[in-house]
Amino acid sequence: MKLAVIEIGSNSIRTSIYKSSKKNRFKTLDRWREPVRLGKSIAQSRLLTNEQIEETIDVLKEFQDRIQKFDVDRTSLIATAAVRLAKNQAQLIFAVLKETGLQLEVINETEEAYYDYVAVRNTMRIKDALIVDVGGGSSEISLAKKGRLKHGLSIPIGAISISDVYLTSDPIKDQELMKARKAINGHLSTLNWMQTPAIFVGLGGTMRALASILNREGKKKKTLHNSIITYEQIDTLFERLLHATNEERRKIKELSDGRYEVILGGILILSEIIKKTPSKQIRFSNFGVREGYVFNYFYKANKMMKQAN
C-alpha cells in the first residue's frame, strides 16, 4: 500500500510518499516541501488572504502532479495550526475541494500532540519522554511515561506568531525579547507536569534547523535523527543569531528558505520550555505529525484487513 500525505503547516506545505511494510512499518519513497507562510496573516488577523489560498491551491496542484508518478492508493491532505486558527478555514476547505478534489482534514490540538507522540514512540527507544514540537503557529507538548501518553496539548504560540508579533526590529531590542518571553511563559505557567523527569525530545521546523546548523558546523556525518543538542549550544547559537541582521541570517544555508525571519521566535519558545524542565539537553526527532499520522493510518488499515480475513 502506498500513501501520500500532504501537510499544510504555518511555514510551508510538505508532502511525503510512504510505502507500507510488515508490522505497521513503512519506508519513505520521496518527500518535498514548498515554503508558504500562511502563519504570517494568522498571527496578525486570524484570516487567510485570497492570495494565500490561491498560492496554496497552486502548490497542491503541483504536488498532485508529482504524486501521480508514484501510483499511490490514497492521498491524505491534513492541516495544522495556521488553518486551524483561521476564522475563514471553511473558505480554504471549499476552494481546495473544488480545485483539487482533495478533502482537507484539519487536525485539532489534541490530535496533533498525539501524532507527535505516536511518531516518537515508533522511532525512538524511549519510555519516558517530554515531546516538544515547535511549529510556526503553535507548539505541541506531550509527556509519555512508561511508553504511554499521559499529557498532550497544543499552545497557540509558534515561531511565526512570536517573531511577527514581538520580534519586529532588526536587530531585536531587549524590550521585545522581554515581552516575547513573558507571552511564552504565560502559556507555560500551569504546565507543572513538564517538571517530570523525562528525556526531552524536540521536533518540528525550528529543531530541524538548529540540528542541521549545529551538525554542519560540528562537521558530524551521522544522521540528524536521535542527535543530541545541549542547552548551552542552543543558548550560544541564539545569542549569535540575535546579534546578526536579518540579511546575515538569510545567508545561513539552513535558514535561507524564509526561516531566517522566524528562527529567533522558535528558539525562544524552545529555550523557555526547557528552562521549566529538569533537562539539560534535547534529543532531536526527524519524525513528527506527518509520520505519526502515517503510523496511525497503516495500523488501522492493517487491523481492518485482519478483521476482514
TrEMBL record:
Residues 19-296 form the Ppx/GppA phosphatase N-terminal domain. GO terms for molecular function: pyrophosphatase activity. Signal peptide: none annotated. InterPro entries: ATPase_NBD, GppA/Ppx_hydrolase, Ppx_GppA_N. Belongs to the GppA/Ppx family. PANTHER family: EXOPOLYPHOSPHATASE (PTHR30005), RETROGRADE REGULATION PROTEIN 2 (PTHR30005:SF0). This is Exopolyphosphatase. It comes from Companilactobacillus versmoldensis DSM 14857 = KCTC 3814.
